[in-house]
Amino acid sequence: MFDKKKIEELKKKEQDWFEKTKDVRGADKNVLSGSGIPLKRIYSPADVKDLDYEKDLNFPGNAPYTRGIYPTMYRGRDWTIRQFTGYNTPEETNERFKYEHEMGQTGFSIAFDAVTESGIDSTDPRAIDDIGTGGVHVDYLGDIEAMFNGLPIDKVSTAVIATPWTACPISAMYFVLAQQRGLSLKTLDGTTQNDLLLFTCCCHLMDLIPPSDLIRLSVDHIEWCSQNVPKWHPVSIASYNYRENGINAYQEIGLMLAVAVAYIEEELKRDRLTIDDFAPSMTFHMSSHNDFFEEVAKFRAARRMWYKLITERYKAKNPNSAVFKFHVQTAGSTLVYQQPLNNSVRVSYQVLAAALGGVQSMHATSYDEPICLPTEQSVLLSIRTQQIAQNDCKITNVADPLGGSYYVEWLTDELEKLAWEYLQEIEAKGGLVKCIESGWVHQQFAKAMAEQANAVESGKEPVVGRNCFTMDKEPYDVPIFYPEPEDTAKIQKNKIAKLKKERSSIKVQSSLDELKKVTEAGDNVMPSVLEAVKSGATLGEVCGIWRDIYGIWKIPFSG
Amino acid sequence: MIDRKIKVLMAIPGFDGHWRGAVVVTRALRDAGMEVVYMGQQQPDAIAKTALDEDVDIVGLSIYAAGHLRLIKKVLDEMKGKKIDDIPMVVGGVIPQPDIPKLKKIGVGEIFPPGSPLEKIVDYIKTNALKSR
Fold it and tell me: Is A173 on the interface with B (CB under 8 A)?
């Protein structure tokens, strides 16, 4: 893009300028990006001299999609406002969904409690104190029906934030609900999280089956949905959650692509589908963290890298295969317990970074997350934060407004380089599944968490309200939200008792027998999961089949 | 006895699997020369049993999910049942301010909400673990 001779001249001038200003206050400061990349004081065309506009950036909607995946970006369609929501019973979560919908939210996202994510029913005596606490509890089809009662699932898409194995029955419940309402699975829009690392390495689950078996169910889900629910996104690789474990921006991309590679390889080795049959359905769920410009660069780098991975390594021909669609959650781990209202400001900047990075869907984390589950008021503020960005600030006027910034383009390249290296490191260790089984991923996270904690502790990493600008007395009195686990457990148990009286136990048993047979034979489990769910089988009964076959995994981590 | 390293049990009671707080504190305690038995998430009875079997000096619980009042009480009850309720307990995690006095009343020594300085946690554990010997 630049004249070679002129760039050489400029380089010299830049060196002179650095030299001449080296004694000015601040010139000797050693400054690093959020992920530890050393930063110069200023960037110039000399730092991006090799950039080829068409090959490296191009126009939005054109490969490699660095500047965005749609030709009109937000002029055509704003990003979807999708707050991650769920607590107590499905009926109470339904109320919250309705409130969010009335407030102008444009997508739903279900937060399940850890018991549901573990594929365990509310009748399990161990579960009583955790039912409905970190999310909503779901036992069977009727719960999904209740959760979406009166909500237009044909117009508003839903994200089902479930683990790889519970993803199969819970998504199946949602599909059955759609069919009951007369909707065609051919047009049903939404997403299932279905991420391999999220609950094996980021948040641990009780009674989880081993990762090598989880991935089989994960990919069964992708395989079946890509053929039968073509608008559904059966996986949303959750690098948000990896990042929440302390790793940096390029490690986030590297791990995210490592999970994608593991899924793709698992499907391709079955020799049932080609890359173009399922890659278009793959989506991503990233974090928007504190280093504003590095985060913008990260989203841009991720788009370009996905394009390269899919077309160069996997030779995809369908342009949709190489389009990187992503949701963003602003980083909960950056929020601070002290002076909690300040968090809404942190969230706003992170929302802005994601918007400038070309996001498709977003959850703006609520300011009270370090204190309690979000109140109705804090959820409203999260929705309004996004609406203000979309309406008042005019940031949606032009696509990729930071594209062409010498700094952002240089940083995009740097992150890409470092992320490829991290991906290679994982592949050199035998790939992602091996890295989970060996405990390597856990160790990476634990090391990163400890380092970050020490940086905050030592004051090296300033955090307002936490280690600087602290106050002796909390200045804000914020309302607290309490879920009611005991009541929820009681209500859910009664529902199961009623269900067991009403359903045909013969039908349930035969559908579960069929599921067992199919699982053992290595066929796609989704058709029999759908039958089991329709017959009234509970989530715990379906997952119990897999627990019996595969056994329970012991997490390879001891601190 | 005095020569022995301070021995801490670190666990996450219940189903919720958020581990960041437990890991960060575990590593800080080890850096400070203590021995930490890291259990990850466990049911209250298993936590009390390990506390007894491992003969720990102090029990640390980390909790993010909202069932903290009941889950922590269950661990304390299990410890009482095993006659080891003289072992002090500290709790960290997402604990709303109004619940802090409630937890202290049922027998928790100290509560460290998110963002508590690690140094303070290490000092507290050092002092109280030694007292319990």
Answer: no
